[in-house]
Design brief:
alpha+beta; Purple Acid Phosphatase, chain A, domain 2; 6-stranded antiparallel beta sheet; 6-stranded mixed beta sheet; 9 helices; 24 strands
Length: about 450
């Protein structure tokens, strides 16, 4: 049984009617995070100057969140059990009878307001002993897919091949599918060996306070860093933390600091949300572009400074090096249902195509965002979309010609990401799909 530390905020309550948090309640102190529990876990009050209440959330949820663009409130795929009330405050030990999530809400015996100091001392006031398993291991339903993916990677890669794990749109959700995705990624890596990991953005839904988003993002990145290979992240539109009217929006510099701190090892300019990385052994240069700015009128697109930087950097790329570009969104509006126009997208295409005409060493532009698969061959540069890593399969609001595979929880199709094998000498990309969808070849 492990002791799990609580984080709470003074002045926050949990509404008995909805199970959601609310502010401006000075006589309450509550957890905003959801804590996973299992049978036999218990909450013990250490200081009798307080009462506590427990709101629990079952592991069931409305399936509409998997099949439509209707994002779950508070980024939680759970169902509130309705067990919180004004008469359920207690001092007696609370013992859980099954697996579910929960939050706590406290009040003082004397009825006085809470201070920030009390929130900081929460783990001296109350403690949680958990029996829930913390280790991330692949489910049995993924074992054959793991075997097949490992075998495919080993068969396809050559001595100088570059092998990258590429995933997009994890949209972290409480009781979602991230834990399975990272367990599968880690297991394939330990057996087949990735040279790096690329996340194409939208790590979370961006609907919760920034301190919670910070925690979710750091946990995701820490999970990926455990593979001990270079980690490359591009910024998605949800990563600005603006979605669904969220007022706690991050600036570009805040996003760079949170999502792209790994760039420091490459001594890249941390003022900008775009960069490149060379894999010198394989003669591959990877560009990671920024395709969204929340403060612009046309939010989807590319600023002129970035485009000029790309033009110059392409020009200075060694001729024997092949190039792959990664971004969250496509450079063409017809490849994005949500965009009537892509800011400076035509200029970006022009820069890439002029370089391609002269050197013919750009293998592809790869992006996420559409939650769908396609390979667009209508420009000099193949444009490749990768579907959503989170178990979602909404068929609505997709660009013409895309494919969204059907997804099922607790089956192989729950997961979706690619092992990308770059064969520079052959100027070919091979996408080995893990989970829903198919393998693909470009070049």
């Amino acid at each position: 049984m492990n002791r799990v530390k609580f984080t709470v905020k003074a002045g926050v309550t949990i509404y008995a009617s909805t199970g959601r948090t609310g502010n401006n309640q000075p006589d309450r102190m509550s957890s905003c995070y959801f804590y996973l529990t299992a049978k036999g876990s218990r909450i013990v009050l250490l200081n009798k100057k307080y009462y506590f209440n427990v709101a629990t959330y079952t592991l069931d949820f409305d399936e509409k969140y998997r099949h439509s663009y209707d994002y779950a409130p508070e980024e939680s795929w759970t169902t509130y059990a309705g067990d919180l009330g004004g008469d359920t405050y207690r001092q007696k030990e609370y013992v859980f009878q099954d697996s579910r999530y929960f939050r706590i809400c406290l009040k003082r015996v004397d009825g006085k307001i809470f201070s920030a100091q009390e929130a900081d001392a929460i783990n001296d006031i109350i403690c949680f002993y958990s029996t829930a398993q913390q280790e991330k291991k692949p489910r049995p339903c993924f074992q054959k897919e793991i075997e097949d993916t490992v075998e495919s990677i080993k068969d396809l890669k050559k001595e100088n091949s570059l092998v990258l794990a590429v995933l997009s749109d994890t949209h972290y959700t409480v009781n979602g599918t991230w834990e399975d995705t990272v367990a599968n990624l880690q297991t394939v890596h330990w057996r087949a060996g990735f040279d790096g990991v690329v996340h194409l953005g939208d790590l979370t839904d961006g609907m919760v306070p920034r301190e919670i988003t910070y925690t979710y993002v750091r946990n995701i990145l820490d999970d990926l860093r455990k593979m001990a290979v270079p980690l490359h992240v591009v910024l998605g539109n949800h990563d600005a933390n603006y979605f669904a009217g969220n007022p706690d929006v991050m600036t570009i510099s805040e996003q760079v600091y949170l999502y792209q701190s790994d760039r420091e090892r490459y001594r890249m300019n941390m003022e900008y949300p775009y960069y490149f990385v060379d894999y010198k052994k394989q003669h591959v240069r990877c560009f990671f572009l920024s395709a969204y700015e929340n403060t612009e009128k046309l939010r989807y697109g590319f600023d002129l400074v970035q485009i000029e930087w790309l033009r110059k950097t392409l020009q200075n790329t060694p001729v024997e090096t092949v190039i792959v570009l990664f971004a969250h969104m496509a450079p063409l509006a017809k490849l994005d249902y949500w965009a009537s126009a892509i800011r400076n997208g035509d200029l970006l295409i022009d820069v890439m195509e002029k370089h391609q005409k002269q050197y013919n060493n750009i293998l592809a532009y790869i992006h996420g965002h559409t939650h769908a698969d396609y390979i667009f061959q209508g420009s000099a540069i193949p444009i490749v979309s990768i579907g959503c890593a989170k178990c979602e399969d909404m068929q609505e609001k997709k660009p013409i010609g895309t494919f969204t595979p059907k997804r099922e929880l607790h089956e192989t199709s729950q997961d979706l990401w690619d092992a990308l094998i770059i064969k520079g000498g052959e100027k070919q990309l091979q996408f080995v799909r893990f989970g829903a969808g198919k393998d693909r070849v470009v070049g």
